Amino acid sequence: MKYIMAGDSLRLDTSRCLGDGRCLEVCPHGVLALANRKAIIADRSRCMQCGACQKNCPSQAIDFTQ
């Protein structure tokens, strides 16, 4: 499923990422993946901007900005 907003406001600061994978566990649509022990945005179009990844990121590497 693809969403209208398609994660347009999803921002990921890989320099802050701890690579613990919490964001992957809570994302209901598999938007994020791990590469080289850091989170990456694998498929932005699947993002429904629910904020689960942001709320569960201990290093605050994920943000939604307009």
Roughly how many Å is the radius of gyration? Answer: 11 Å
Strand portion:
15-25%
Amino-to-carboxy terminus distance:
22 Å
DSSP helix fraction: 10-25%
Average of the residue pLDDT scores: 89
Number of helices: 2
Helix/strand structural class: alpha+beta
Principal-axes shape call: globular
Could you explain how this protein is built, in words?
This protein has 66 residues and is of the alpha+beta class. Helix content is 14%, strand content 21%. The chain is built from two helices and four strands, in the order E-H-E-E-H-E. It has helices at residues 22-26, 52-55; strands at 10-12, 32-35, 38-41, 62-64. A two-stranded antiparallel ribbon has the order 1-4. It is globular, with a radius of gyration of 11 Å. 20% of the residues are buried.
What does the secondary structure layout of this molecule look like, with pairings?
Layout: E1 10-12, H1 22-26, E2 32-35, E3 38-41, H2 52-55, E4 62-64
Condensed summary:
The chain is of the alpha+beta class and 66 residues long.
What structural keywords apply?
two-stranded antiparallel sheet; two-stranded antiparallel ribbon; 14% helix
